[in-house]
Design goal:
Rossmann fold, seven-stranded mixed beta sheet, single chain, 25% helix, 4 helices, 144 residues
Amino acid sequence: MVLCSVLRAELPLHQGMLNYFDGAENAFISAYRHHRGDEDAFEVIVKYFAAPSLEGKTLVLTDPMLATGKTLENVLKALKEHGTPNQIHIMSVIGSKSGIEHVKNVFPKNTHLWIAAIDTELNSKGYILPGIGDAGDLAFGEKL
């Protein structure tokens, strides 16, 4: 098993997962939204990825907020360089209905989604409503 967390927001959940899967290998990937100016449109940029081979393994991909699904889509593209997992489990705390549908359309059939709560809508910038705010900022303080 490989636990892969999307930095930085996911670090608290990653540590909790290690409490149960302490023999798992670890992977970390950075992904963030890049808004150009005041536009609602954004792109997801993946800059850093450290992982063992994923070939034939069970991948547990954790991201606390599944809003649009674009972050997970770009993470999936980056993962392809490290092998094809046998199964993918995505764990999120809160998601949106549209983000869940996007993940279902983009990820392979061997993907399982584990999510604690589903909110019904996104705002014009693609953030979950009502949501809980930026998970990284809530865990670590505002970005510098």
